[in-house]
Amino acid sequence: MSSTRGLVASSLRSSGVDGPGNRYVLFLQGCNFDCVGCHNPTTIPRYERQRDPPFGDWRTVDDVLGELRSLRSFLSGITVSGGEATLQLDFLVDLFGAIKADPVLHGLTTLVDTNGTLDESGWKRLAPVLDGAMVDLKAWSPDRHYTLTGSTPWAVRESILWLAARDLLTEVRLLLIAGLNDSEEELSGWASFVADAAPGVPGRVLAFRHHGTRQAARNLAETSEAAVARGESILVAAGVPVIREVAMGSRAVSPTEAPAARVGRRAQPEPFPASTQ
Ligand code: SF4
Predict the structure, then answer these.
(1) Tell me: the pLDDT tens digits for 77-93?
(2) What is the pTM assigned to this prediction?
(3) Crossing angle for the helix pair 61-71 and 89-101, nearest 10 degrees?
(4) Minimum-distance ligand 1 atom for the alpha carbon of 115
(5) Distance 67 CA to ligand 1 centre (A)
């Protein structure tokens, strides 16, 4: 039993694009970045506000466990995203810990989709109940990273190094935006860092789209397929395996580049216990 509360922006009962398998996804409210290309800017405000409708709703760990139990036979795992999921670390640690301790839910894999700003002490708290982290590295150079997010990249790079060293890094993501982080120098720097810091961990190049963004971002060009392919080729040349998006949100790992999609330490979700199916 846990009454620890999290401020939740929204949830998805089923997703095939937020990690391997069919996943329950929880989007937590609040972010410490303010990204130019954010596709979900209503999740950025960090605190509940008197607004109609309000930002997010409070849910307890027990609330989420109840929903997961009702869906268990269809799920491979849970992904907590945002906003920035790790800003609500107490809730995240308690939730993943409760899942791992639950006789029905313990086989679900626990992933976090993060901007990578959690510090080492936070990762140490989360690691025992975490199966993997998908980390965004928005740009290589500090000035471009600051332009894109309002913050420097140092904490993100530290997180990538820390997680990779413990086989907890599932993938590193790059939202490609023309004119901001798509230069040869930017992409080569990004790719070289990831190849060295996290050998064998795949990268994923995402296309910037106008859908969901703020008005100011509508002046930026949407990313072409050719630009994504160019970015991927730079990653591959540097030794970073690439995960490619394919139609209808499913995924493929380029066969010459990555052996399999990773889920940190636990390679596959555990099967649902026969006695409770
Ligand atoms: S880190 Fe993610 S949620 Fe936060 S502002 Fe950037 S894109 Fe939006």
Answers:
(1) 999 999 999 999 999 99
(2) 0.90
(3) 40
(4) 1
(5) 26
